[in-house]
Amino acid sequence: VIRCRAAVAWAPGKPLSVEEVEVAPAKAGEVRIKIVATGICCTDEHLLQGSFPDAEFPVIPGHEGAGIVESVGEGVTSVKPGDKVIPLCIPQCGECSFCLNPESNFCQKSHISEPQNLLPDKTSRFTCKGKQIHHFLWISTFAEYTVVPEYAVAKIDAAAPLDKVCLFGCGFSTGYGAAINTAKV
């Protein structure tokens, strides 16, 4: 178990509180990441305002970030400790009918069809003051360490500057998609 700092939202409408949290080791098929950089998105603000009806509190927000793999659970093969990675708020399992369809980008295991307040095994890797803390979109980048499913992490080039590429997890891809697909720029 790693003890680290995290910004915890204890209840909707309340300010974030920086707390010492415990982050359990990665289980089978999971990756524990040391978050080096994170972005702040309006989606995080919506969470804090209570705009997500399925969100459970207390929760560690954050869904765009970049970091270094600290450890991996049994069976993880796509990344290893020391790899630079970006956690994915819209993961791709690579196996469901949506992932196998070139016209789709919403994995059936993503937040579109499966709540991401807990990891896929329906448990949390976070605790604080003896209480379970929920994940946000399986990522929770407002923590110094987090645990995500292997299919919700992308290995990136070792030379990539983490403070810049952290925005690829949401901000850049959303903005680029809006400019190209909606605004037709």
From TrEMBL:
The keyword Protein biosynthesis is assigned to this record: no
UniProt domain Alcohol dehydrogenase-like N-terminal: residue ranges: 28-157
Keywords of the record: Metal-binding, Oxidoreductase, Zinc
SUPFAM superfamilies attached to this UniProt entry: GroES-like
Cellular component per GO, a single term: cytosol
Origin superkingdom: Eukaryota
Cofactor(s), by name: Zn(2+)
Gene Ontology biological process terms in this record: retinoic acid metabolic process; retinol metabolic process
Stretches of the chain forming a coiled coil according to its record: none
GO molecular-function terms, A-Z: all-trans-retinol dehydrogenase (NAD+) activity; zinc ion binding
Protein name stated in the entry: ADH1 dehydrogenase
Organism (species): Rhagologus leucostigma
